[in-house]
Design a protein that fits this description.
With about 170 residues, the protein is an all-beta fold. Helices cover about 0% and strands about 55% of the residues.
């Protein structure tokens, strides 16, 4: 199996541009406020969005200069997301890459063991394992993002950084 590449706006970042370092930071409109007795209360207006950064350095540039950064772009990451819970049926909070299906694990006797899974839309069902106390699903996400054109450097190689924010 060929490992998928990070892709922005339909353009895969070539292996020769360097292995991308990927970060994902949750975004949410929330704040912690204090009541008159000092107790903390978290007020959330919205949540579930993400932002992040891609960066790398390689022998060639990324090839992403022709993208229209004024409009949303599709971002396919390889940094997996995961959910662990005590049941084997999961609802993914975000879509997964079309070229890489989710995969599952069961915690049996303190060790994570691979288990088969199937997906219909955002619902992933893992095969139950005898003696499992937890199940975990992992997937490579796809986002619709606003991204900045790559910041680039040139030294011993072509360095680049891309900041993005989910729409």
């Amino acid at each position: 199996m060929q490992y998928p590449l990070v892709t922005l706006g339909g353009i895969p970042i070539p292996v020769e541009a360097g292995s991308p370092d990927q970060s994902r930071d949750p975004l949410q409109g929330s704040t912690v406020v204090r009541m008159s007795d000092g107790a903390a209360v978290k007020m959330t207006h919205w949540s579930g969005k993400a932002s992040g950064e891609l960066s790398g350095s390689g022998l060639i540039p990324t090839g992403l200069d022709g993208l229209d950064y004024n409009n949303p772009l599709e971002l396919l990451l390889t940094h997996p997301r995961s959910i662990a819970q005590d049941t084997a049926v999961f609802t993914l909070p975000a879509p997964c890459r079309p070229d890489r299906e989710p995969w599952g694990h069961a915690l049996v006797e303190g060790r994570w063991r691979p288990v088969p899974c199937s997906r219909v839309g955002l619902t992933v069902t893992l095969t139950e394992a005898l003696g499992a106390t937890l199940y975990m699903v992992q997937w490579m996400p796809v986002y619709t993002v606003f991204a900045d054109p790559p910041q680039e450097t040139m030294g011993a190689g072509h360095g680049w950084t891309i900041n993005w924010q989910e729409v």
